[in-house]
Design goal:
Layout: E1 2-14, E2 19-21, E3 26-27, E4 31-48, E5 55-58, E6 61-62, H1 65-81, E7 88-95, H2 105-120, H3 127-135, E8 149-153, E9 164-169, E10 177-182, H4 192-202, H5 206-225, H6 229-248, H7 259-273, E11 279-281, E12 288-292, H8 297-305, E13 312-316, E14 323-324
Parallel strand pairs: 5-7
Antiparallel strand pairs: 1-4, 1-14, 2-3, 4-7, 4-8, 5-6, 8-9, 10-12, 10-13, 11-12
Helix pairs in contact: 2-3, 5-6
The structure holds ligand DP6.
Length: 325
């Protein structure tokens, strides 16, 4: 009973920022992402009768603490949901991105884990069901089951049975590129889980965020349909700024940005002023992702790599959904 799955990370252009049900991981709003080919997690899961607990190795190191607890809780869910009994697993994962530096390694991580575990068990489930299962490990991970542009439908059902990702356009539909710009690869202080909870519970700006989302979603889907890059980029950038604004209205207030984050944001806006259509988006960390078109790759790269605050830049194209190795 062993299988290996590979899942790519995704970058949200319309952010998931808040849960209506924390244990089932049901979001307050639909979100929309692009799956990236540059960053992935490859995970091998082996169910072994001789083990007395789950064992998790990440990049060759045993994982303990909170990260282990989340993985173990997710395996318990799989064992419960599919009546597996008390058979424990050995999990071996490899990441191609700095863990917890705002590069959503939990997205590719839980997608690969869900894919490998269900494959190892020979469960006959389709990608939609796999997405619903993956969601319960980490919300944004449910989008990584699919490639290209993906929407996570929040759903209405209280049991989460209609909260799942759907593909909007496959990875070969439109060659939009993303530069992942690292300014600080240290672990973040406020996890996305904790940050969104504090925002939902306390931010005076949260209702404004929610009110503006249906329009953002309709606009970005129109931009994808029409392959209108300036529209796609400007909606993504504005949606990111709004999400980050909600954290400033929370109690206690917080921000994921550092000086270096703002330096990259300003460099992107300066590029735009000089006629290069580039746009930024930022998740729950200090690092920045920059959206651009293939013909501007050299100019965008040169600008980003020459910024003193930047320690690393990695390019991604639109990536595929989950695959089995
Ligand atoms: C800012 O999916 O990491 O990246 O569901 O609690 O595991 P949990 O949170 P997570 O949150 C991601 C938040 C975000 C925006 C996004 O990816 O949509």
């Amino acid at each position: 009973m062993q299988a290996t799955a590979r899942a790519h990370t995704n970058i949200a252009l319309i952010k998931y920022w808040g849960k209506r049900n924390e244990s089932l991981i049901l979001p307050t709003n639909n979100s929309l992402s692009l799956t990236l080919d540059g960053f992935y997690t490859e995970t091998t899961v082996t169910f072994r009768e001789d083990l007395t607990s789950d064992f998790f190795l990440l990049d060759g190191e045993p994982v303990m603490g909170e990260q282990y607890d989340r993985v173990q809780a997710f395996l318990d869910l799989i064992r419960r949901e599919y009546n597996i009994g008390q058979i424990y697993t050995e999990i071996k994962s490899k990441n191609t991105m700095p863990t917890a530096a705002g590069f959503a390694s939990s997205a590719s991580g839980f997608a690969a884990l869900a894919g490998a575990a269900t494959k190892a068990l020979n469960l006959d489930i389709d990608k939609t069901e796999l997405s619903r299962l993956t969601r319960q490990g980490s919300g944004s991970a449910c989008r990584s089951i699919f490639g290209g542009f993906v929407e996570w439908e929040k759903g209405e059902a209280e049991d989460g049975s209609d909260s799942q990702a759907v593909q909007i356009a496959p990875s070969n539909y439109w060659d939009v590129r993303v530069a992942a710009v690292v300014v600080d690869a240290k672990m973040k202080k406020v996890s996305s889980r904790e940050g969104m909870k504090r925002t939902v519970d306390t931010s005076v700006f949260y209702s404004g965020w929610l009110d503006s989302l249906p329009q953002d979603l309709a606009d970005i889907k129109a931009a994808i349909r029409g392959q209108d890059f300036e529209k796609l980029g400007s909606i993504s950038e504005a949606n990111c700024l709004k999400m980050h604004a909600t954290t400033l209205g929370a109690t206690p207030p917080f921000t994921y940005w550092q000086d270096s984050t703002m330096a990259v944001m300003q460099a992107v806006q300066t590029m735009r002023d000089s006629g290069i259509p580039a746009y930024f988006t930022i998740d729950a960390g200090p690092n920045v992702k920059v959206l651009y078109l293939p013909e501007d790759e050299e100019a965008v790269m040169n600008t980003l790599k020459n910024l003193p605050v930047v320690t690393d830049v990695t390019l991604s194209r639109s990536g595929e959904g989950i695959s089995y190795v």
